[in-house]
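hey
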């Protein structure tokens, strides 16, 4: 058998050969493209995408994008600014090439060292943006560029330091989201995804086992939202491609539902489950147990609930007093969370793990404040339940997308005098008795959190749409293991088949790491590297 180090050397060599050989070469513009002043397929468009290609090749350890854009108006020149988000912890600095072609055929190349061309900005935990500007752009120009981000590794436990680096490099991978629709009309697009890593293909074959939350994740799924006739094709090498033409631009309207829930895209993810019914029912149990643990009853919670409700004679009176008290605490979704250094200096716990920790600090994220209210309500003898809802300002819940990324926040349901009263103590200045995320026009799923001292999981009262959750702990910080994971059991066919998601069993698989934006705007998980312009959609 080959040594690990020789395999590592071969893998690294193959990486740079693959980047050099498989990257899309620049194309010579046609006479029609150079002379184009407007596009009949996109009347009035500031610019159009002539061709776009996106590849995620885990076998060769890279992510790349190649784009050709025709500038038609003055405002279309904004697409000369390109942003490339990347994860500094598991990828290398982007490699870029670009040029501007004027309508008379003059070529102005992007020159200089990458360190001089790229402007870096941190946008989250280990996430940076590399931005560059194409030169000498004018109306009528064709913008052409490509960038490549080498995948450099991840985390492998149970190995020596030397072998950990070797295996980490061979397991370097990314899980893509193919954003097919953009702010610009696209004439042609091509997407490619090879999920197999060096570890899968070259070293141990199908012997690698990966886990998601302690469960083996043996299924690669993708959820397509595509126009009629467009189809993801699975190749003989267990890779995936999509070719599509004439994709309309995303249209934005005021007071419209979130466009991110409607535009064309394909989302890949790994999961232990192949049906929506099994997925959501298991995640409801996981969510219930973790919320129960976080919002568990302690003497501090009970004493605080007694003091806060002093003088209240009715259930509603107690609920209002608790609500006013929690709303008065600092909501770090609207201020900021303290850094580890600040917490150490103030002799605070490094991490908030319980509702009583939020109570002691009188501060927390929207999710943690909602969980604290739930704990106080239980202590005061109120019938209260945790509820996860889809924030319609951000997205609409899709039960066919078997990922918790679309669920991001916690609200509270009170049962008083036979009525359901929804509260959002995690939303600053939201009046008692109102919940901007749940209403008669917004169907919901009720996820029951256990009452005090009851250590069992509750099911969900299913309705057709809802769901909200964040991939973080209840105080809003990004973690690998976090309490309070929420779920929804959507309506599914009798056979339990998830009609919208396509399942492919690949044997061993990689952990789910899809990115999300939760309440408070923090970002976590795998990063989709976008070629959108500054401020792009």
């Amino acid at each position: 058998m080959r040594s690990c180090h020789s395999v590592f050397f071969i893998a690294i060599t193959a990486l740079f050969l693959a980047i050099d050989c498989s990257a899309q070469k620049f194309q010579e513009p046609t006479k029609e493209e150079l002379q184009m002043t407007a596009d009949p397929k996109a009347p009035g468009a500031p610019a159009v995408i002539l061709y776009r290609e996106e590849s995620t090749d885990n076998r060769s350890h890279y992510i790349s994008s190649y784009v050709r854009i025709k500038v038609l108006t003055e405002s279309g020149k904004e697409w000369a600014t390109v942003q490339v988000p990347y994860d500094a912890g598991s990828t290398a600095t982007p490699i870029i090439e670009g040029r501007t072609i004027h309508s008379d055929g003059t070529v102005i190349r992007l020159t200089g060292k990458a360190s001089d061309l790229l402007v870096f900005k941190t946008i989250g935990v280990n996430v940076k943006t590399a931005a560059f500007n194409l030169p000498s752009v004018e109306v009528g120009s064709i913008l052409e560029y490509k960038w490549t981000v080498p995948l450099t590794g991840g985390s492998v436990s149970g190995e020596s330091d030397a072998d950990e680096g070797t295996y980490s490099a061979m397991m370097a991978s990314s899980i893509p989201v193919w954003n097919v629709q953009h702010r610009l009309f696209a004439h042609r697009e091509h997407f490619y995804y090879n999920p197999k890593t060096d570890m899968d293909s070259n070293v141990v074959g199908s012997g690698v086992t990966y886990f998601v939350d302690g469960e083996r994740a043996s299924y690669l799924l993708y959820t397509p939202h595509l126009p009629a006739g467009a189809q993801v094709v699975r190749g003989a090498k267990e890779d995936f491609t999509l070719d599509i033409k004439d994709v309309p631009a995303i249209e934005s309207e005021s007071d419209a539902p979130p466009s991110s829930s409607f535009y064309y895209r394909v989302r890949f993810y790994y999961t232990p489950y192949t049906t929506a019914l099994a997925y959501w029912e298991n995640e409801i149990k996981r969510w219930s147990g973790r919320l129960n643990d976080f919002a568990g009853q302690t003497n501090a919670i009970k004493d605080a609930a007694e003091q806060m409700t002093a003088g209240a004679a009715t259930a509603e009176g107690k609920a209002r007093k608790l609500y006013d008290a929690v709303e008065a605490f600092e909501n770090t979704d609207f201020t900021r969370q303290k850094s580890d250094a600040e917490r150490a200096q103030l002799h605070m716990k490094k991490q908030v793990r319980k509702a009583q920790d939020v109570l002691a600090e009188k501060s927390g994220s929207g999710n943690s404040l909602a969980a604290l209210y739930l704990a106080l309500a239980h202590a005061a003898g109120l019938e209260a339940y945790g509820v996860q809802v889809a924030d319609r300002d951000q997205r609409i819940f899709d039960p066919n997308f078997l990922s918790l990324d679309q669920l991001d926040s916690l609200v509270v349901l009170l049962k008083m005098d036979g009525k359901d009263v929804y509260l959002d103590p995690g939303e600053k200045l939201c009046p008692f008795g109102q919940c901007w995320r749940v209403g008669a026009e917004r169907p919901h799923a009720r996820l029951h959190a256990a009452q005090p001292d009851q250590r069992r999981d509750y099911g969900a009262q299913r309705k057709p749409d809802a769901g909200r959750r964040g991939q973080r702990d209840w105080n809003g910080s990004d973690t690998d293991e976090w309490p309070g994971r929420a779920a929804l059991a959507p309506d599914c066919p009798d056979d339990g088949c998830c009609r919208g998601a396509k399942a492919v069993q690949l044997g061993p698989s990689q952990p789910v790491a899809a990115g999300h934006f939760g309440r408070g705007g923090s970002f976590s998980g795998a990063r989709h590297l976008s070629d959108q312009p500054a401020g792009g959609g």
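The longest helix spans residues 4-22. DSSP finds eleven helices and 26 strands in the chain.
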